[in-house]
Amino acid sequence: MSVSASTSPSPSASSSPNASMSSPQTTVFSIIFAISLVHLLNDSIQSIIPAMFPILHESLNLTYAQIGWIAFTLNITASFLQPLIGLYTDARPKPYILPLGVAFSLAGVVLLAYSGTFALVLFSVMLLGIGSSVLHPEASRVAYLAAGARRGLAQSIFQVGGNIGQALAPIFTALIFVPLGQHGIIWFTIAAAVAIVVQIYVAKWYKSHLSLRKKAAQTVKRTVSQLPKSTLWLALCVLVALLFSKFFYLSAMTGFYSFFLIEHFHMPVDRAQMIIFSLLAAGVVGTFFGGPLADKFGRRNMIWFSILGAAPFAILLPYANMFWSVVLCVFIGLIILSSSSVIVVYAQELVPGKVGTVSGLFFGLSFGLGGVGSAALGTLADATSITFVIQLCAYLPLLGLLAALLPSDRKLKLAPDQMQATETASADAAASDKSNGNSLNS
To answer: Which residue ranges traverse the bilayer (predicted)?
Structure first.
């Protein structure tokens, strides 16, 4: 939700961060696309890790379990820190923490490019995890503030950036890491530098936005969920279970399915990675349309469809030939990633008034479950086989049946809408007072 001193900003001012705040109901697309770009760059850097698995497996002679622990270190760092950062910045917003977070990622990239031991690789990915810990809760809050009345669309645009970045991992493997090896990572310092510049722009808008909201915040009545506590806790537990099914499955696909393809079809690494790319690229499309479709058909319905709907394709995948493996991966990615933004917005409406905490918690859970999944599945693959792991994980999307226990969208509408209306009225009053003050001073 954005506010300004004038409800009709001049065209000449539209290019500046401060000018983007026209009304609490206005969607500030320049800021939303800016943070989506940073999300793309950040997740492109994060995607270095799974993209490097086949390279590190050979160059450092790592076991599947060690590969799983690399992903675990990245994800558990982000999982632990993101809720804490979200909780802290809910109480004390810090706009310039945004470029600072990318600086940690930059340091991680440089170190990872020259890590010659397993321990140094773990430390490098820990720095990358810290960078993501700062980005996700704060950038999600910025998307919420800049969304106006179009939260689903805004969160989808933000999430699409991240999904594109993740989808590029197989491309990086084929075009950069196979020919250049581990040292090719150093090229990603360019992505980190661009992200820092864009984050400074976003931070300026964020700071100006907060200064105008400060007076309004004094009159905003804190709104709490109207749901019974038992219903609220049940809904949160269901969301966690759905995240478990989704991210354990995605950990199996992004971390280990390429090994399955290499083993079964004797594919070269770069070709196997392109099939993973088909899944993730389809997921970008699913994420983009998931938010608007949820705005139209309901968030609970979209969450239910996105996980359970992928089940038949996931169950067939381990038994498909090479051609149908690509087709099934496209359908799985399109469906299972369509709720990436929807779950976050649903959770924000489930617990109104705690945007940073909720965003940090759910992004943190996503990272944490992905990390635990990678470590557990890597250990299981060493003890059994890659084939067994892929076949077992194929049944995880069936947990989407639990979405039937979530409260309907109608039950969630009251509290967030009351909060939005109160904030809008208060923010308008603050903007009007600021405008009147400027007139008196002139």
So the answer is: 62-82, 102-135, 156-178, 184-206, 231-252, 272-290, 302-319, 325-346, 358-380, 386-406
Euclidean distance between CA atoms 139 and 312, whole angstroms: 34
Q: What is the pLDDT of residues 103-112, one digit of tens each?
A: 999 999 999 9
Contact 82, 367 (CB under 8 A): yes
User: d(Cα 349, Cα 351) in Å, to the nearest integer?
Assistant: 5
> Which range among 16-25, 82-91, 161-170, 308-317 has the greatest average pLDDT?
308-317
Give me 304's structure tokens: 């239910």
Written as six digits, the tokens of 314 are 């996931």
Contact 317, 325 (CB under 8 A): yes
Task: Give, in words, the CATH class of 29-208+229-411.
Answer: mainly alpha
User: Distance (Å, rounded) from C-alpha 237 to C-alpha 254?
Assistant: 25
- pTM score of the predicted model: 0.68
List the structure tokens of 218: 């004094």
Copy the structure tokens of residue 340. Answer: 């990436």
Q: How far, in Å, CA of 65 to CA of 268, rounded?
A: 22
Domain ranges in the chain are: 29-208+229-411
Chain centroid, CA 125 distance in Å:
17
